[in-house]
Design goal:
Number of helices: 4
Structural class: alpha/beta
CATH topology: Transcription Regulator spoIIAA
Distance between the termini: 39 Å
Strand content: 25-35%
Number of domains: 1
CATH superfamily: STAS domain
Oligomer: single chain
CATH architecture: 2-Layer Sandwich
Number of strands: 5
Length: 120
């Protein structure tokens, strides 16, 4: 594959920080989905996605985020996106992703957001 690098860090609070690098498109979507599904299968539904090194995303990649966010919300979790590359941020905004996922300035702010009590 080579077009996508996924870095994972699990925090003690059952929050997973995922760094996504490269390209998230039709060719790499299955790899991305598989990594996230394995984490969700472990009962973890709070994610921080650092997209600072994701250089390109297509509608299929955005669709993956929608599925991830929906499953997280069904299980009282959430998704926070931090530092999206400008091109990626434009695509996420255009497709309305920020209407269903949270965003934060950096990873620390995202973790604080996930740890704070929120109204459902």
């Amino acid at each position: 594959m080579g077009d996508l690098v996924i870095k994972k860090l699990t925090l003690p609070e059952e929050i997973v920080i995922i760094g996504v690098e490269g390209i998230l498109d039709n060719n790499t979507q299955d790899e991305f989905d598989d990594v996230i599904k394995k984490i969700q299968d472990e009962g973890i539904y709070r994610f921080v996605f650092d997209l600072s090194e994701l250089k390109h995303i297509t509608s299929s990649g955005i669709g993956s985020f929608v599925k991830i966010a929906n499953l997280c919300k069904e299980n009282y979790g959430d998704v926070v996106i931090v530092q999206p590359h400008p091109v990626v941020k434009e695509a996420l905004t255009l497709f309305g992703l920020f209407n269903i996922v949270l965003s934060a300035a950096d990873v620390n702010a995202a973790v604080k957001l996930l740890l704070s009590p929120r109204k459902r």
